[in-house]
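pasting for the record
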Amino acid sequence: MPFPGLPWPFLRCVAALADAPLTLIAEQLRDAMLPYLGSSALVIFTEDCTGGPQKKAGEEDIISRVSIAELDTLRAALSDETPWFGEAEIGGKPRPVLALKHAASGALLVLTDPHPTGPGHNTGLDVVTYLWCIAARRIQEKVADAPPSYLLESRAASAERVRVTAELTDLHSTTLETLLAALRSSSLDNAAARSTVTDLTAKALVRLRTLSDRTMHLAEEPVATAFERLREDLRPLTRFSGIEVEFIKPPPNGRALPGEVAHAARAIVRGLALAMMEQPEVSRVRTQWDCDGENLLINVRDDGRGALTADAPSITRLDRRVQALTGQLRIDVMPGWGADVFVTLPLDPPARPAGDVAGWNLAARELEVLQHLVAGHRNRTIASTLGISENTVKFHVRNLFRKLDVGSRTEAIALAHSHGLR
């Protein structure tokens, strides 16, 4: 070692954390913190990773039960990046926790049953906070530079989560609504018990619907919110580069963006802005977003001499990212007037060619119901859209299961997807 006085074990942990892949970052962070602060489990909650918002390490009994609702409630209670010690419900029961929030990304770190393992409580907490900042920034960087395969896998995971949540919502809503009807029945003479259980069940229904909405929020991001996050990302450039960055906002009521599209769009604009600013005589960069209902439309333009080219390495890398989401990138170079880049990102995954479903012998109404199932709609929504009762929808769903030879909505959806139904 050329510098024997340096804390090499700590520096190695920092290096491993800074280089950790997303799949191992929770384990690496817990190992790095262990000499200073022990814990029974470590959980990271980050909406940057739409396909996997939780990164976990530690006792299986805790990490297998922790929910997004618990983490979201805890995060909402934190006002800033100050470490918070207290008791919170994690993994289904109250536990002592240390929680830290990363202001730049909104990511949350939770350590359950925290206990000092080294000398100096304050010193250990400072080190833990420092390591958490490294991990949070690492997550941001990995998502921003994600390869096409990650974007496609993340989009698939998000879509599947929405479908499964819709299925669970249907299942539990039906159960709870049936229970409510029974408890309200005049044949039950215990009025006090009926009133209490009715109240509890009604609250459970509200909570279940809230969880469904929360899952949908994780999979999508309002276009105006996504654009404001882009402005925050580019704020340091406007502050220190001396180059003016002009932002043309999208319509506030535009269609919400899938999480992967929102993240990719911000990364693409950041990359384009940096590439343009590296050119000589650029004093202004303008970025504009719009949404036509089916695509996110991005335009980035500079006022340079038109030196940017489509085959530049930076543009080529960005084009690969655009293609990963089946989008298009076009660059118009005007010598002496600058470069104009247009990006189109579809908001829906590409539809496969519809396969031969004639063998299923579906009636027209059954096919309509199946298409609604594939879209993640609940029985109540299907009934309202088609102008039929929920019982009729359930009747068609049972017939679908029999004709498709499946045992659940998830299986039916998967089979329909394999045949290209959307």
